[in-house]
Amino acid sequence: MEFLQRHQWRCCRRKHFVWYYRLPYETGDGQNLVTEDVTVVEGDVATISCRVKNSDDSVIQLLNPNRQTIYFRDFRPLKDSRFQLVNFSNSELRVSLTNVSISDEGRYFCQLYTDPPQEIYTTITVLVPPRNLVIDIQKEIAVEGEEIELNCTAMASRPATTIRWFKGNKELTGKSEVEQWSDMYTVTSQLLLKVGREDDGVPVICLVDHPAVKDLQTQRYLEVMYKPQVRVSQNYPVQGLTREGEPLELTCAAFGKPQPTDMRWLRVDDEMPQHVVVSGSNLLISNLNKTDNGTYRCEASNAVGKSHADYMLFVYDSRAGEEGSIRSVDHAVVGGVVAVVVFAMLCLLIILGRYFARHKGTYFTHEAKGADDAADADTAIINAEGGQNNSEEKKEYFI
Asked: Checking DSSP bridges between strand 175-181 and strand 184-194, what pairing results, if any?
């Protein structure tokens, strides 16, 4: 017995015979054994492989984290049918574990009965995806300009999940808190959002980043109430001036949430003319005159608030358009004449400038007077030099 204890032998009994096998000593190098860590989602299948690089027909054994033998060669002493033999040979022992749970997580040992014995371990890590993903909105219906609070909760995951927020295609930043219950994590992310009318009907998305799941998300659509938007358009005349004696038709359009129920026309800082006809969203003046000049306002309101749009009316003389066209033609003719005159003057200035530049510094005097008519050179010099009287009559003329 002392010999068995000293060499760590274990006894096994099967039917009518007993055999002993030696437990290997743990070594840190595992120089002839190869295995890999396993990461698996809860409920899936994990496969453990113990491989021998240089097989010498030594016995391979697989043990669980409690040091219980799962497989000894191709025999399974452990009574857990979730472990199934996938492959057994002199160089590999491969075992599958179905329906993995968190209790299966830990170190599994591969042992090789060599001299000296070898042992390495592989770690099974079990991932648990969030079991529920919920968005809670502080106010189901918000009013433009309000700040609302949204909370997204991812429950019972492992490891803790990361929550991301999106409004439409734009990513937003929330604030997350993590709570741990046993081996599970619950994460809650809070988002504060100031809403406007452009956010009405836009989805707010809570998206989960977790190694156990892909594209897990939930969303809520924002419902935002806002006061009316008002716009006044001129139906007639479609284009051109509003002139005396002609009609004017205006239309008021208002959009809001809820839809405006109260809409009215008024004249700013004055009473509405008696001949003005208001029919719902339309305003009609059949015969314009200059007393109609002023600002006409369309107001619309709903449960959120009131808005308005203004139209400034200026009535022109009945022939304002024709006179304006004649005046525009006259202006065009005058402008053309002025352009031709300016161009001619520029051309003249250019010619004069070039002429003066060419004759710059050239001048004539009377010093050589008489030299041109001389018979020979000596006479020309005498005539050019002249006498005292000629010298007094010297004058210079600059051209």
From this structure: antiparallel
CA distances from 69 to 39, 230, 364 (A): 21, 80, 132
Mean pLDDT, residues 292-298 taken together: 97
In terms of Cα–Cα distance, which of 373, 398, 396 is closest to 384? 373
Q: What is the DSSP string of 197-221?
A: GGGTT-EEEEEEE-TT-SSEEEEEE
Given the DSSP bridges, would you call strands 184-194 and 106-112 parallel, antiparallel or unpaired? unpaired
- Mean pLDDT across 21-42: 69
Encode pLDDT of 178-214 as tens digits. Answer: 999 888 999 999 999 999 999 999 999 999 999 999 9
R_g of the chain, CA atoms, integer Å: 52
Q: Which of 36, 52, 10 is nearest to 108 (CA)?
A: 36
Q: Tell me the helices (H) and strands (E) count for the chain, helix number first.
A: 4, 29
Taking the C-alpha atoms of residue 118 and residue 52, their distance in angstroms, rounded to an integer, is: 11
For residue 381 the two structure tokens come to: 């010099």
Q: Which helix (H) or strand (E) holds 320?
A: helix 320-358
User: How large is the greatest C-alpha to C-alpha distance in the chain, in angstroms?
Assistant: 169
Q: Are 121 and 108 in contact (CB under 8 A)?
A: yes
**CA nearest to 260, candidates 291, 276, 237, 281:** 281
Check if the beta carbon of residue 273 is closer than 8 Å to that of residue 292. Answer: yes
**309, two tokens:** 């749009």
User: Measured between alpha carbons, how far is 185 from 363 in angstroms, rounded to an integer?
Assistant: 109
Residue-by-residue DSSP string for 23-92: PPPP-S--TTEE---EEEETTS-EEEEEEESS--S--EEEE-TTS-EEEETTB--S--TTEEEEEE-SSE
> Which two tokens mark 218?
């939930």
- For β-strands 142-143 and 224-236, DSSP reports them as parallel
Contact 40, 82 (CB under 8 A): no
- Per the CB < 8 A criterion, the answer to whether 118 and 32 are in contact is yes
Three-class SS state of 140: coil
pTM beyond cutoff 0.70: no
Peptide bond into 211 cis (omega under 30): no
In which band, very low, low, confident or very high, does the pLDDT at 281 lie, cut at 50, 70 and 90?
very high
